[in-house]
Request: fold
Amino acid sequence: MNDFKFCPECGGRNVSSPKGRKWLCADCGFELYNNVACAVGLIIKNKEGKILLEKRAREPRRGFLAFPGGFVDPDETAEEAAFRECFEEIGVKPASLCYIGSEPNTYEFKAITYKTCDLFFEAVLPADVELKIQKSEVQAVDFVKIDSEDDIEKTPLAFESAKKILKLWLSAKN
Reply:
């Protein structure tokens, strides 16, 4: 759980976090809620049925595999974020999106723990597109065959939410 040493409002040291849901300052009454952040991920298949995975270029989980995706910006829908993140990371806007489901996730970054609700979509790319990866976010992309839960377990995925949604996606396919 993230910890504040001082109240951001009055500077007092009487800050507590009962149940980890919000921070309270006993000195001035300041309350700050620890709300969940929203993120998106896209499962993209090629003609052979393989799934596009990115090798992460940044922490957290640098070098591990992830779906194209990222955090939803303020005043942005999940669908808008999915289109934007896909274009930013691989240079292509999907031709279509279909909602799959959501999974909770924990995202550790620079000694801060963020709780997220990750929303996943199956995406179809336009035919014959050329991917242009964003080197600051993505080291490389690869299409990986995922046909079983064993395939999922063997794949070095960055986030537990991706593993869970792939299992759901696989069971819906079969």
